[in-house]
Amino acid sequence: MTIVRDLAPGDRDAWRALFHAYGAFYETDLADDVLDHVWSALLGGALRGFVAEEGGVVVGFAHVRTHVATFSVGEDWYLEDLFVDPSVRASGIGTAILEHLVKIATWEGGGTLRWVTAESNATAQRVYDKLATRTTWVTYEVELGG
Questions:
Q1: Rounded Cα gap, residues 108 and 117, in angstroms
Q2: Per-residue pLDDT of the chain (146 residues; tens, 9 = 90+)
Q3: In the 8-state DSSP scheme, what is residue 89?
Q4: N or C: which end of the chain has fewer CB within 10 A?
Q5: How far apart are CA 81 and CA 118, in angstroms?
Q6: How far apart, in whole angstroms, are the C-alpha atoms of residue 47 and residue 62?
């Protein structure tokens, strides 16, 4: 049975291994200072972290941030990262994480939950298309120095 819960300080090593695998999935070698930065944000409240467990083993995670909504009352929820260990994919864990996020966001006042994924990530999109509405918004980004 999948349990989705808040990330806890004791999850550090399992989270770190999964976050390395997440970076590798997107062909990015995440340096230790990046992982330390994200972990600090998760424990410091800038990001909220959730983990999925199967049989007491952390097998997935999600990072979420909220901000004031400008088109509705409530918060806008943004899913920064979602990752499930490849060894347990297609077992409903990603769906369980997303359903948990919807439940938490609804319980905390509603709003909108949004996320993006790589255009090439067809596997994830099959899951997302069952749970959410694909929008017509196009995403842009500017890399800032610093």
A1: 25
A2: 899 999 999 999 999 999 999 999 989 999 999 999 999 999 998 999 999 999 999 999 999 999 988 888 888 999 999 999 999 988 999 999 999 999 999 998 878 999 888 888 888 888 888 889 998 888 888 888 86
A3: T
A4: C
A5: 12
A6: 10
Helix (H, G, I), strand (E, B) or coil at 106: helix
**Local structure of residue 29 (DSSP, 8 states):** -
Instruction: Give the Cα separation of 138 and 113 in Å (integer).
Output: 17
What are the chain's domains?
A: 2-131 (3.40.630.30)
Element (H, E) at 39: helix 32-44
Query: What single letter denotes the amino acid at residue 32?
Result: D
**What pLDDT does residue 2 have?**
94
Joined together, the tokens standing for residue 136 give 């017509």
Beta bridge partners of 52: 4, 60
What confidence score (pLDDT) does residue 62 get?
98
Residue 103 has which token pair? 């439940």
Q: Taken in order 40, 43, 47, 52, is the CA torsion positive or negative?
A: positive
- Contact status, residue 58 vs residue 15, Cβ threshold 8 Å: yes
